[in-house]
Design brief:
single chain, mainly alpha, 0% strand
Length: 117
Amino acid sequence: MLSHSRWTHQPDRFAARMLRALEWPRVAAAVLTAFLLSVGTLASPGLLGFFSPTELALAWAEHSAELAVLASCLLPAYTLLDELLPSRLPWRLAILCVLLSLAACGLAVIALPHSPV
């Protein structure tokens, strides 16, 4: 039964398939999403009236770095889940979204003790 699944007897083939799945469109989508999320915080109209441009640039750079770390952790998680789930699974996208949301919550819990409060 195991021979008919996507898992093979050779773990090297799965690792190679994982690396092939990390193509530039998937990485570019993660980078673009992180960038758009970081720019979204700058859309407040009264932001320049309260903070100096230097403070804004520093806060934006820190926020962008946090999002880059999240993206660099969630991208391999998504790729792993995408490769593990059968391609004809019903509700596959919904399952991927729920599992990625759980992974993001797990990252938030891990990062919580390290955040300056």
